[in-house]
Design goal:
It is a single chain. The protein has about 160 residues and is mainly α. It is built from 9 helices and no strands. Helix 6 runs antiparallel to helix 7 and helix 7 runs parallel beside helix 9.
Length: about 160
């Protein structure tokens, strides 16, 4: 009966077993001094880069912010063209990517072509998802628009990217 208890005491504790599992060759080891894998590190750096990107929108005056909100709120409705025309006539082209992408939905070439040109300038600084979305939107516009100037601009821009 004494042998049974001696064998029990020689077995490693659960804590020791967990420690051995963490040192296993089959478990990805983090970088020295830090937690996680290289994938985690890359993901954190990508998000930090996106957070501190220099083209983040600035704080706008109240009237301009209200007009911008109206453009975003009316997207996809009949009131969108009027809201977009009002914003562009009062404040010019916005500097943020999302509003410019919305303004591509307009039908007037004198408003859409400058928007496409502005997006083309911002294109290299955008993430992969935004770049794909812009190329897709250009293809859709080139296929569906009735205006020849807008179609040519969208096709040329799509080829250049």
């Amino acid at each position: 009966m004494g042998d049974y208890f001696d064998d029990f005491r020689e077995k490693p504790s659960w804590r020791d077993r967990d420690r051995r599992k963490d040192r296993s060759r089959h478990v990805a080891q983090g970088e020295p001094g830090g937690q996680g894998s290289s994938w985690t590190r890359k993901e954190i750096l990508r998000k930090a880069d996106r957070l501190f990107r220099p083209n983040r929108p600035k704080k706008l005056p109240a009237e301009q912010q209200q007009a911008l909100n109206e453009v975003h709120r009316t997207a996809g409705s009949k009131k969108f063209a009027a809201a977009a025309a009002h914003y562009l006539s009062q404040y010019g082209l916005p500097g943020d990517w999302s509003t410019l992408m919305l303004l591509m939905e307009d039908d007037e070439p004198e408003r859409v072509i400058p928007v496409i040109e502005a997006l083309k300038k911002l294109y290299p600084a955008q993430g992969l998802e935004e770049q794909r979305g812009f190329r897709s939107k250009l293809n859709i516009i080139a296929m569906t628009t009735k205006d020849d100037d807008i179609r040519l601009c969208a096709e040329e821009t799509g080829r250049e990217l």
